[in-house]
Amino acid sequence: MSKYWILNIVHLPEKGSIEVLPFFNLTMVWNKAITFGMLGQLGALGPIIFTIMASLIALGLFIWMLRSYKWWVTLSLGAIVGGAIGNIVDRVRFGAVVDFIHLHVAGWSWYVFNIADSAIVCGVAILLADAFFQWGKKS
Prior knowledge:
Layout: H1 2-9, H2 12-15, E1 17-21, E2 24-31, H3 45-67, H4 71-94, E3 97-105, E4 108-109, H5 115-134
Helix pairs in contact: 3-4, 4-5
């Protein structure tokens, strides 16, 4: 929904960037690489490789999600899988992921990202917290 809104309601590709708050812009970026622009040098083959990799990882995480007995692990895996699917759909439709959230303050600027990326990061953070707090406990 957010990417549809950015592309078809806001028409961000035509506008480039819109200041929402002094530290937050909607900035259109077609990300042909992976997280934080990594591995962008793969050229035309990149989106195909990333789509296949992300699909296989999402499938594995989905299977893990179905077998999970902890609600927070299920929730975090759902966020990761949902975010991955959102970005996979972009790669299939456009050959790149629609990124548009740009945070910056006092000369510092973070990478442009999207809500699917945020879901993935939150899901991974929950999994890491779960693993950390389980560390050292006897099964």
